[in-house]
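Researcher: Re-running this chain for the archive, since the previous output was lost when a drive failed. Same request as before.
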Amino acid sequence: MAEQRSPKPQVGGSSPSSRAENPGTDQMKQKIIDFFEDVVKEMKKVTWPTKEELLNSTNVVIAVCIVMAILAFVIDKGITTIFQGIF
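Model: Regenerated structure tokens:
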């Protein structure tokens, strides 16, 4: 069998005994590391609520949910009563 050579002499072929390194892999690793470093920096800039603010906000959310549930119940019962009267 004839030996096969690369059409470009300056380009070396791959050697089966060694693993080819991908130059983009190091750049991708660095981008991932930079991303997480930026995440940590941004998280340090966040103004976190105090415990009291968090409890107050939670109470508001729960109260609004209860009011909306009651409103939905009243509307549903009203529509049910109307349709039962018609049919």
